[in-house]
Structure formats: structure tokens, C-alpha cells
Amino acid sequence: MSEFSILEMEQGNNGHGKIEIAPEVIEVIAGIAASEVEGVASMRGNFATGVVERLGKKNHGKGVKVELTESGIKVDVYCLMKFGISIPTVAGKIQDNIRQALLNMTALEAEEVNIHVVGIQFETQKIEPEIDSEL
């Protein structure tokens, strides 16, 4: 983990106080922005996030790791893609969407947005039971 735990925003001398953003906030923003892109099947989580989601709470930061360094913000996104899409095209759209969302919501620019494709999700066909039409 990085030595920085909270990102302090720089602002002029307006005398209103300071603004701090926790890395978890950036994870949530990046997670939502990534999952909005067409072609992303799901975000990768761990056992704990799976249990939490089964209990009804949505974890929007799932599959996202944020590292705050002296040189800037590094975002790693772990996702599953849908079968049949162009992975480089979708990965580029994810990067653009995350950068734009961070810029719009926090006025921060990410130094790196790394996309890790950890799997492909195939579309499964649901087999519907045959209904006997003889009545």
C-alpha cells in the first residue's frame, strides 16, 4: 500500500478550508465508469465482495485498485469482457471513461489507468422447459 492514505486537493487561498478525497472514493468513481462501458461483463472481486453482494449491498469499487504516489494517481482495473468484442477497443473506452469521470467529479487527472482483462464471459443460453400443449 502506498504511504499516502488521503488525497488533499490543492485550491487557492479562498479561506474556506481544505478538501480531502479518500482513495475509496476514486475506486468507486472508476468502478462505476468502467462498468458503464459496453462490452464489460463484470468487474472482478474477491470472496468478501461476493459475500457482501449476496447480502444485498452493491460494491461499486469492486475490481479497482487505486494507488496514490508522489507522481500521481495510478488506477488498476480488473474486469471480465463479453465474448465477441474487441478487447483493445473496449479497454481504450474504459480508460477514456475513467479519466473523464475523474476529471469531471474530482478535477484530478490519473497518471495511469491500467486495464487487466482477467476473463471472458460467454453468453449462456437459457433452456426453457418444453410445455406440453396437449390439454
From TrEMBL:
Protein name in UniProt: Asp23/Gls24 family envelope stress response protein
Family of this protein: Belongs to the asp23 family.
Pfam families assigned to the protein according to its UniProt record, in alphabetical order: Asp23
InterPro entries tied to this protein: Asp23
